[in-house]
């Protein structure tokens, strides 16, 4: 196994030291995205050429990674830049317009990838150094498929921009937990309408393969049952690459804005069995998108619209697990109406409350919601996941681990109230179907809270004081 951290560090330093071209982690990630895509698809092509008689890559021979990038002494400098960027027969032009009658769907994927990305590097010598580093990865080198996930996860962690790229990455422990608790079955349609880099879908593929895929026919069923939608080009190509790494020959993964889906056009044929997602929150939406939704739920908050969309996309009996911030489970107006719809149309049976630092570097209180469509909610179980003993917060070096969920997984099928688990009847919820229910059994004091948690509690206190003052001023304004 290659020294992953060393390779990624070297790539990052090479890109940072280039005099011209790449600016910021966003462009670094995009540059790495298309290069990794070509490396990975060529590795997979070489594997398929060995195991499938007559298999032929959709990538023209000249542009296959093995023929221009694999040789460490291969083309470099201005010759390499011309090979990539030539306006008539350069790599980007050719792959944006690729045609392959023998594999139309796979060719379409390549076109879509290169139509949305750019080559930012302006030094062919620096590019050759990056290529040689990437050649340290051999994606056909191990029978252990999790090596791919380790490499991929390391890339995302190392190259994400602390302020912006958190939206691309859900900790693997979270995707594993949500997938295991939702338990997708072979043949059921699994969808992530806010798929990002494909973490939930790759977790679903691994889960189903391990449990139920035993024959080639089983694998063929799995290949046609996993779907993702993503509308940001960099996240899209990273997610597509992730699914190829996970053995999806022609990923059903589409570059589209899910919120532009015509709400009333979603019928039984479009509905799915399972949705796993971490929808973006606090993100802007395209102008007019909200008009796709019924008037009573229209808003400009992406996460709230996604809740409505998810409910519509689920079949009766369909299951959903999603990540939502506290801001989506409380609040009045349209937020209250959306929660009422959720509790009326679905059985919201479980809410897992997470520490604020779970999605480090973001510090926002988040929740995992698990529900099934078809019957109204009568009671909700809450489970408070706490930080490991002695740990004040999650961080880059001490992220959340799947093993921490062992007590909750044991509790899941044999539910009893305890110091971290409690249930609430819907009839007892606060006004407005407020789902922000604190643990009544908690022994945690304010002195045990982290700094971000203290700040959040302080802001909430200020909000309550502000509202109280406004009410008093309103009352005495008429005297």
Could you explain the architecture of this structure?
- With 479 residues, the protein is of the alpha/beta class.
- It contains 17 helices and nine strands.
CATH architecture of the largest domain: 3-Layer(aba) Sandwich
Q: Would you give the CATH topology of the largest domain?
A: Rossmann fold
> What is the CATH C-level name of the largest domain?
Alpha Beta
The Rg value, from CA coordinates, equals 24 Å
Shape: globular
Q: Determine the mean pLDDT.
A: 88
- Determine the structural class based on helices, strands and strand pairing: alpha/beta
Please provide the ordered H/E string of secondary-structure elements: HHHHHHHHHEHHEHEEHEHHEEEHEH
* Beta-strand proportion: 5-15%
Instruction: Output the strand order for the largest sheet.
Output: 3-2-1-4-5-7-6-8-9
Helix content: 40-55%
User: How many distinct beta strands?
Assistant: 9
**What's the CATH H-level homologous superfamily of the largest domain?**
Vaccinia Virus protein VP39
Q: How far is it from the N-terminal to the C-terminal residue, by CA?
A: 78 Å
Biggest β-sheet strands, sense, barrel: 9 strands, mixed
What is the count of distinct domains? 3
What's the helix count? 17
């Amino acid at each position: 196994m290659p020294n992953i951290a060393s390779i990624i560090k070297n790539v990052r330093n090479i890109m940072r030291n280039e005099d011209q071209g790449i600016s910021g982690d966003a462009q670094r990630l995009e540059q790495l995205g298309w290069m990794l895509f070509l490396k990975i698809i060529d590795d997979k092509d070489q594997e398929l050429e060995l195991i499938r008689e007559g298999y032929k890559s959709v990538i023209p021979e000249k542009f296959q990674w093995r023929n221009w990038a694999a040789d460490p002494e291969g083309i470099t400098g201005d010759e390499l830049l011309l090979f990539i960027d030539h306006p008539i027969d350069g790599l980007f032009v050719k792959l944006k317009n690729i045609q392959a009658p023998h594999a139309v769907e796979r060719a379409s994927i390549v076109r879509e990838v290169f139509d949305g990305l750019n080559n930012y590097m302006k030094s062919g010598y620096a590019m050759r150094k990056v290529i040689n580093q990437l050649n340290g990865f051999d994606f056909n080198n191990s029978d252990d498929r999790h090596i791919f996930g380790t490499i991929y996860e390391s890339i995302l962690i190392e190259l994400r921009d602390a302020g912006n790229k958190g939206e691309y990455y859900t900790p693997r422990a979270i995707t594993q937990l949500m997938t295991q608790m939702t338990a997708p079955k072979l043949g059921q349609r699994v969808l992530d309408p806010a798929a990002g880099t494909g973490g939930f879908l790759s977790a679903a593929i691994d889960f189903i393969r391990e449990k139920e895929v035993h024959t080639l026919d089983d694998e063929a069923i799995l290949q046609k049952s996993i779907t993702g939608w993503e509308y940001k080009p960099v996240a899209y190509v990273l997610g597509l690459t992730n699914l190829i790494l996970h053995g999806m020959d022609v990923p059903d993964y589409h570059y589209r804005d899910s919120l532009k889906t015509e709400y009333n056009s979603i019928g039984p044929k479009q509905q799915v069995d399972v949705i796993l997602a971490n929808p973006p929150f606090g993100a802007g939406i395209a102008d007019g998108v909200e008009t796709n939704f019924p008037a009573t739920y229209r808003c400009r908050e992406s996460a709230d619209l996604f809740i409505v969309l998810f409910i519509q996309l689920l079949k009766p009996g369909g299951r959903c697990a999603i990540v939502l911030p506290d801001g989506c489970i409380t609040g009045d107006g349209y937020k209250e109406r959306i929660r009422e719809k959720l509790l009326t149309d679905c059985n919201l049976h479980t809410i897992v409350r997470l520490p604020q630092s779970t999605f480090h570097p973001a510090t926002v209180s988040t929740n995992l919601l698990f529900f099934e469509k078809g019957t109204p909610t009568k009671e909700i179980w809450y489970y408070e996941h706490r930080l490991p003993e002695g740990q004040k917060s999650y961080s880059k070096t001490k992220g959340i681990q799947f093993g921490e969920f062992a007590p909750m997984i044991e509790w899941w099928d044999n539910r009893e109230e305890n110091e971290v688990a409690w249930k609430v009847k819907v009839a007892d919820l606060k006004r407005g179907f407020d789902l922000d229910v604190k643990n009544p059994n908690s022994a945690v004091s304010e002195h045990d809270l982290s700094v971000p948690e203290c700040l959040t509690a302080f802001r909430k206190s200020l909000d309550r004081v502000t509202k109280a003052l406004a009410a008093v001023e309103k009352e005495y304004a008429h005297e």
